[in-house]
């Protein structure tokens, strides 16, 4: 029983290490507990909550709460049936949390807010190498909605899978190393970058005016590109672009350059460092050649091509080391 408890605690320890660095704050309510179900159609006595994290949405200014289910699993236990079962349970938990006086009293209070579900899956033997979303999607859609009639549609649930956990852990190990070596500006203001978003002809989301500790949004957590910016009193930013794609073609990098320009990152930047998570060997010469092609395609005017090349020259491309988080059952069980 103690061994099982220690294994289960690994995912919670990992969450406390990584999630605050996304500028998600752990809510100081009851952890690893349950609260009464308020909806008879759920056919449940209660709903579990391992932890709750909160952040202020950078576009809307609303409080968002993420209700987490933490899983510490061996690779052979990460099966579609188990994951879909956890997602179903989370969907019911999320549905009930919106009307539960007990949940709101413990975690959110009376303030207006939005709730999101979160499933964090830590692979404790580091042997699971599949794309979790693709692994479970067939089973998930086979069983929904016919077998989930009691769940309100359009619930938002994020999955932080083993590969994303390793990526986030690696990203913050890299950040710590860059900061200790003074390779990025020693500034007090830093956060995740969010561009203006056009939703339709009549609606757009405006980027925050201040990027001080702006959080990563839940729907960005498995993105192939994460933008982080640093700034002081000047109007220019220093950007770190954490990149999960492989860099396998010129077109891939040219698309990335187009994003950097359309998001107005290039026009706002002092420097732009693209930090590649697991690139192919040829990514580095392909990146260099992609700059030349992108500049050449930008105009038939040699002067404009030269100006574009000067802009692109501020962009560098390097890799960073993969850091797999590791816990030991005996260590987790030792007195603090």
UniProtKB/TrEMBL annotation:
Pfam families: PDDEXK_GAPS4 (PF26115). It comes from the Bacteria. Residues 3-137 form the GAPS4 PD-(D/E)XK nuclease domain. This is GAPS4 PD-(D/E)XK nuclease domain-containing protein.
């Amino acid at each position: 029983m103690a061994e099982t408890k220690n294994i289960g605690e690994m995912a919670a320890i990992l969450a406390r290490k990584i999630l605050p660095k996304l500028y998600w704050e752990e809510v100081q309510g009851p952890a690893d507990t349950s609260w009464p179900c308020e909806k008879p159609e759920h056919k449940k006595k209660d709903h579990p909550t391992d932890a709750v994290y909160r952040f202020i949405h950078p576009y809307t200014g609303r409080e968002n709460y993420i209700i987490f289910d933490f899983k510490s699993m061996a690779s052979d236990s990460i099966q579609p049936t188990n994951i879909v079962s956890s997602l179903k349970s989370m969907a019911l938990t999320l549905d009930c949390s919106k009307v539960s006086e007990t949940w709101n009293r413990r975690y959110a209070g009376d303030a207006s807010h939005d709730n999101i579900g979160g499933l964090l899956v830590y692979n404790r033997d580091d042997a699971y190498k599949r794309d979790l979303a693709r692994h479970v999607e067939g089973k998930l859609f086979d069983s929904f909605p016919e077998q989930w009639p009691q769940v309100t549609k359009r619930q938002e649930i994020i999955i932080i899978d083993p590969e994303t956990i390793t990526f986030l852990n690696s990203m913050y190990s890299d950040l710590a190393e860059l900061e200790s070596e003074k390779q990025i500006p020693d500034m007090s203001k830093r956060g995740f970058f969010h561009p203006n978003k056009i939703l339709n002809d009549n609606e757009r989301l405006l980027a925050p005016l201040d990027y001080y500790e702006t959080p990563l949004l839940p729907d960005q957590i498995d993105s192939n590109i994460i933008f982080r910016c640093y700034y002081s009193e000047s109007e220019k930013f220093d950007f770190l672009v954490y990149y999960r794609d492989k860099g396998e073609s010129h077109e891939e990098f040219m698309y990335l350059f187009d994003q950097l320009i359309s998001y107005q990152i290039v026009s706002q930047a002092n420097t732009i460092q693209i930090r590649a998570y697991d690139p192919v060997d040829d990514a580095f010469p392909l990146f260099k050649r992609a700059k030349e092609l992108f500049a050449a395609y930008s105009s038939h005017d040699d002067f404009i091509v030269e100006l574009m090349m000067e802009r692109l020259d501020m962009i560098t491309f390097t890799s960073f080391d993969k850091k797999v988080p590791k816990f030991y059952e005996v260590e987790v069980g030792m007195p603090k």
